[in-house]
Amino acid sequence: MFLPHSQKRARGLEEAMPAAGLLLRGPRAPLGCPCRARSRAAAALSFLPAPCPPRIAQGSRPPSRLPTRVSKSLGPGVPSGSGEGRRGPAGRSAAPAARRAGAGAGAGAVPAAARLPGAGRRAGSKGNRAGPGHRAGRGAPCSAGAGGASAPPWRPWELGPCSEPDSSAPEEHLAGPAQLRAVFLHTEHERRNSKTVTQADMKVELLPALTDNYMYLLIDEETKEAAIVDPVQPQKVLDAVKKHGVKLTTVLTTHHHWDHAGGNEKLVKMEAGLRVYGGDSRVGALTQKVSHLTSLKVGSLNVKCLCTPCHTSGHICYYVTKPNSSEPPAVFTGDTLFVAGCGKFFEGTPEEMYRALIEILGSLDPKTKVYCGHEYTINNLKFARHVEPNNVAIQEKLSWAKAKYDSGEPTIPSTIAEEFTYNPFMRVREKTVQQHAGETDPIRTMGAIRKEKDNFRVPKD
């Protein structure tokens, strides 16, 4: 099942945020324990193995798009659903939480835990409560199973340190970034295959990450030097480096969001001497901040930095060419340009996205191969079909993308020339797109269709 950005937070969570050093585990209770019956979340997430690890100290996670309302440890007996997620630091609500827990909660019965905003609303019975034992007099969650045997206590949502997921294991239980409000709706995560694209003496390996991200290993075949684009899962990156027998020297970060830059700090610890480039001081482990048209080298490959603010204010696309080569260049577009789509305007305007897509990326060699940050192709094409129902290029590309996805193959890369035929955000100067938006100006059209896309219900066909 294809999951767009807005739905991937509903995936399993055992390895949800490895790049930021966090592990999310659901509540657990012994079989037959009434806690399981009283908590939908406990029943839904009973598949998660092993005891929860110790929690991290507040403030130890890097700048990222992880949920910001994560509580401090409140001490034994304080339930996680204390309202801390909405009220700020734990000290502000520790006393009310203790009063609500009461003597019935039992000292140490419920471990202090960090929680995600909204998890209690979905998992518990009312409000922000995360499960049993949140009111005085209701009693503590049981700590013994049938026959009085000792068993692990029921645990609310818990954030703790974790290690990088094993790249050799099935990529399941991985979740997308931020606001994981539907965490108890676990669905099986399908495997996506990697893919290697060779262009003259330049090789690009597509490395699937998280639920729908892509990392890209860029290899200069002449010097065997390599760069990695957005290494959110460092161990998988190093496994690919070892497989190809190349030397990793460079990290190219498109923007600071954790599902792109969240692995930087761990990677530089695992592989010393890396140069980390990005256009934003919020990028983790940054060694050199770049600007528009900054030039870099990866072996004999030329890398030109293209500043494309809008999705984030410091977003950079990387345009890679090989000197004296007739092969097409490559551009790594992060969350600015997707196949048949573009990123949300989190920190920018329609004018900025128009300049990024039409004036900057649109002016590149039409044969340039586009390597984007996410596998959103099918849903993007369904929206494109909604905007231009009579566009044959969209219909053909959608059929092709469905076949690729069904076989586990990436739909990446596309080309700049192709994007002008089916991407509505690069077709804002076309009358058919403007008529759909009810506008005659391309920039206003850009804003109108982005707003519509943000609220678009994707058909299930």
Automatic annotation (TrEMBL):
GO terms for biological process, alphabetical: glutathione metabolic process; methylglyoxal catabolic process to D-lactate via S-lactoyl-glutathione
GO cellular component, one term: mitochondrial matrix
Coiled-coil region(s): none
Catalytic activity line of the entry: an S-(2-hydroxyacyl)glutathione + H2O = a 2-hydroxy carboxylate + glutathione + H(+); (R)-S-lactoylglutathione + H2O = (R)-lactate + glutathione + H(+)
Keyword list, A-Z: Cytoplasm, Hydrolase, Metal-binding, Mitochondrion, Transit peptide, Zinc
Co-factor(s): Zn(2+)
Keyword Ligase among UniProt keywords: no
Domain Metallo-beta-lactamase intervals: 212-374
Biased composition (Low complexity): 90-152
GO terms assigned for molecular function: hydroxyacylglutathione hydrolase activity; metal ion binding
EC number: 3.1.2.6
Alphabetized InterPro entries for the sequence: Clx_II_MBL (IPR035680), HAGH_C (IPR032282), Hydroxyacylglutathione_Hdrlase (IPR017782), Metallo-B-lactamas (IPR001279), RibonucZ/Hydroxyglut_hydro (IPR036866)
Disordered, as annotated region: 50-173
Family from the record: Belongs to the metallo-beta-lactamase superfamily. Glyoxalase II family.
Self-association and partners: Monomer.
Name of this chain's protein: Hydroxyacylglutathione hydrolase, mitochondrial
Lineage: Eukaryota, Metazoa, Chordata, Craniata, Vertebrata
